[in-house]
Amino acid sequence: MSFDLGRRFFFKWTVNYRFLPENLFMSPYFHLCLLVLHIGLLLALYMLRWRKISTPLDSKSIVLVLFSSNFIGIACARSLHYQFYIWYYHTLPVLFFSTKLPQPVVMLMLGCIEMCWNTYPSTVMSSGILQACHLVGAVALLLPSRVEKVKAA
Q1: Model pTM above 0.90
Q2: Three-state SS at 108
Q3: In DSSP terms, which residues pair with 150 in a beta bridge?
Q4: Per-residue confidence (pLDDT) for residue 71, from 0 to 100
Q5: Residue 81 in contact with residue 14, Cβ under 8 Å?
Q6: Distance CA 137, CA 38 (A)
Q7: 53 DSSP assignment
Q8: Do 142 and 44 contact (CB within 8 A), yes or no?
Q9: What pLDDT score was predicted for residue 5?
Q10: Cα–Cα distance between 42 and 37 in angstroms, integer?
Q11: Which tens digit of pLDDT belongs to each residue from 14-40?
Q12: What's the burial of 55, exposed, middle or buried (CB within 10 Å: 0-12/13-18/19+)?
C-alpha cells in the first residue's frame, strides 16, 4: 500500500537519513514529525507563494507549483531509495534557478545532489549533504522567486 503509515523501511537502503541513528530512523515519532513537516511546508508554500500567483495561471506557474510540491514530498520522505532520484532529478534545475539563489550556489547544489545519489551505498556524509541541499532548496522556494507574478493590489 502506498499510504501505509505503519510500513517499515530498511535502514540499509536509505539515501536521505543515513546520518541518523537507526533507532531514530525507525521511530514512528520521527515518521510522524516528517509527515507534519511535509504538511507544514506545503501550507507555507501555499501561504507564502502559491496564493500570490496571478490568475489566469500560466504554464510556468503550474509547473512551479507541481515541481515544488513534488520536491517537498521528496525532501520530507521517510526514506529515499536510489530509484526515487528520477522522481525529481529533471525538476531541480527549473526549481533552483527560479529562486533567488546565486547561480554558482545552484550549480554547487545540483552537483552535490548528483554526487549524493551516485554514492553507493549511501554514507553519513552523502545523506547529510543531500538533506542540507534539500533544506537550502526548501528555504529558497519559500522566499519570493525571480519568476513570481504577484496579483495587482
Answers
A1: no
A2: helix
A3: 53
A4: 96
A5: yes
A6: 14
A7: B
A8: yes
A9: 58
A10: 9
A11: 888 999 999 998 888 998 999 999 999
A12: exposed
